[in-house]
Amino acid sequence: MGGIHYLDSNATTPLDPRVGEAMAPYLAERFANPSAIYACARDVREEVEEARAQVARLIHADPEEIVFTSGGTEADNAAVKGVVSALRNKGGHIITSQIEHHAVLNVCEYVENIGCEVTYLPVDRYGIVDLETLTRAIKRDTVLITIMHGNNEIGTIEPIEEITRIAHEHNIYFHTDAVQTVGKLQIDVKAMDIDLLSLSGHKFYGPKGIGALYVRKGVQIDPLVHGGHHERNRRAGTENVPGIIGLGKAAEIGEAELSANEQKIRYLCAKLEKGILERIPEVIVNGHPGKRLFNTLSICLKGIEGESILLSLDFEGICASSGSACSSGSTDPSHVLLGIGLSPEVAHGSLRLSLNKFNTEEDVDAVLEVLPMITEKLRNMSPFWGNNKDDKNMRSEAERYTEER
Hints:
Blueprint: E1 5-6, H1 17-23, H2 39-59, E2 66-69, H3 72-86, E3 93-97, H4 102-113, E4 117-121, H5 131-137, E5 142-146, H6 160-169, E6 173-177, E7 196-200, E8 211-215, H7 230-233, H8 241-279, E9 283-286, E10 296-301, H9 306-315, E11 318-319, H10 335-339, H11 344-347, E12 350-354, H12 361-381, H13 388-404
Parallel strand pairs: 1-11, 3-4, 3-5, 5-6, 6-7
Antiparallel strand pairs: 2-8, 7-8, 9-10, 10-12
Helix pairs in contact: 1-8, 2-8, 3-4, 8-12, 9-12
């Protein structure tokens, strides 16, 4: 990427060149509609189904359980709205968490407006849902529990297996937004007993505009999009063939390289975290110390606005985020950071650095070289820096986190 150091991979990852090569023919000569009956269309249909099988293998599903969508947001919408619609005679109560991605939170708000009830579970200071609180929230008309697998901002990994057990003990469907974990972590939907799972291609080196919803056999779900009989009547519309081929190739590569990628990225992220904590005073590291995505580092720097940090990093050729890319236009502090108990003042100073398999030590070293200077400069300019009460609160949080590490 030339002089650019890209560390915002939870927003999107670079396209793997091998994925681009696999897609190229389907943008030109292999253009046939896979629903047609002539030979070249049948060939495309076979390749679409092979891509479906590749995605299924990545998460240990059966190919017929994979429904292609336009991305993770549509998959989340299809899961929540689809279950609510299919089970409307049973009830309309949904349980989710306060720190879900807005693709889940906003659709939950939508179904509330059409008569459903939603319980938003609090989380602890690491971002983990309390299982006893979850169990107490279950009602006779609860039809769905939807809890994300790995948080897109702080990286905390939720206890999915325990949540599915609770859900199924009460005959409730369980959906997980796994957009940040598919292609990073080993996922076996059968062993984890998941009913519905959302994924997105551009989060693991595939193209944008393509994703999938895993729907376990026997799960009742109404289609979100109506029209033709595509995707076994579960999602109408002519298939995005280049995107599907790209998603399949990304899944194939991801399955083969999962362990090697984790080893490399985990090392780089650990070096980044250690270097920041050694060079910058009074830093809070967000998320669980151990149960956290190995590529994600979310920190809060007291006395600084996140936007100022990002602009300064951008000037140095470093791409980062202050939270979720989908919320980058908002001036409100992150709902995730507020949900784990941080004050709005501290949450405003958040910085998320997320790595991918193409990152190098040079990228990490670039951050470690300029971030301490940026922090010192912005703190010296800040009217909020030096408040004794806030300093003590921040220091207490930072010291507590360091001790627990």
